[in-house]
Here is the input.
Amino acid sequence: MEVWPYALTVSEPSCDAAQPNCKGGNMSDTRNSHQKMSRRSFLHAMALGAGGAALAACVVPEGAMPAAEEAAAPPQENLPIIYWSMFGLQEAAQAQNQVERFNEQTGENAIFMSIGWGNVTQKAQVAIQGGNPPDMVSLWSQAYTWGPRGLLLPLEDYAERDGFDGEGWSKPAWEALWSDGHLWGTGHTLNVFALHSNDTLMEEGGFSADSPPETFADLDVMAEALTTFDDDGNITRLGFLPWLRSGSLWHWGWANGAQFYDEDTDTITAGSEEALLYTLEWFKSYADKYDIEKIDRYVSGFGNRSSLTEDPWYVDLIVLQIDGSWKRSWIPRYAPDLDYSVFKSPYGPGYNEPTSLVEIGAMFNVPNGAKNPEGGWQLAHFMAGKQQQIEFGNLVGDVPPLNEAARDPEFLNSLPFNELYVELTESTGGRAWPRIPVLEQYKTEIRRLQDEVIHGQIDPQQGLDDMTAKLQQELNDFRQQVG
Here is the structure.
């Protein structure tokens, strides 16, 4: 294998449809590092266009990651706590209020800085590599790559010392904070996904919100009855498409019992899962039945609309779609007259209960090299507290990961369908992302695969096999580099 000493610079943000998150950044290392990357890995990182891929080539030099006892050392006296946040607008105002409360209660000097959704990961990468990071930063699942690469401090020793042990947290929420045996952050909200219906259109099609679909087959019947065409056979309204909005092979694969990854064997399992093959073929059946060219032409008219008054679901262009728990906080602003319902996601023949992705809406991490890591941990711990969870949940519509907060009347009674979302986080059907360092690549490959399948460009099983082999090699390379 040809090995390249890497001097890598990547800055190509990409966005995940189910998570309003842009990733990218500039990372480099020197020829003196003992860590190397293959030519194949280098070219893949350059081509992939995802922050996770760039970080797969970036390692903090050996010895730079502090030992656990060093990480828990007391801070230097009077140092501020610098917090770089992803939040903007109302969320930034709420975060600022919570930081001020932290300062009042502790006597610390935490300084809140809103970096923005699309910039925080890139700026944090540069700051960590440059040796001048903040003391706490808001990230997403990048932690699964950043942590093992030495860019974040493991927090389990702090957590054990201060009694932060996951007691009372929903299982998928607590699991989502860990990878490779380390706690990489805390969190205060969960993005949870469910089926949203336009009830007015449902009733016009002969269905009732009192009898929601329970299975893939139910969705097929509804989709056919609710999809309309003009005299030329062009789509004028979509009843349902599995890959629209926050629907994806991830969501529906889990709803059919797929696993995607085996943690015990550290194996990508997509190519060997009949449940996932069935789900991908189900996607293709919609593309064939409604004509993918007509679907593409219709959907292209949606543009980038998602939260404004022209959202296709708000204006009667889609009847049923998968969407996130945050949607309910937008509806009063953008579609106050919408008559809607939220249902637990239907399941496929390979499964027998509703399921949902349950992901941390914002993780609070402490970068390696932080000048005040103790302060960063204390703020991260505070932000995961019950009252902070409730306040943010009420603001954005997402579910507190702490069961006591989620079940508190102050949250539970704040928005419609909160009970349903809380039940999803508590059930055995709740799913966290695979906690692997190639997760961002996996997301990219899933989007590519489902697009190629529905457009008839690749056989579903062949596509799953090819994707699995590619990702397993990426994962093996990562493990070999990092150990």
Remarks:
- The first helix runs from residue 39 to 48.
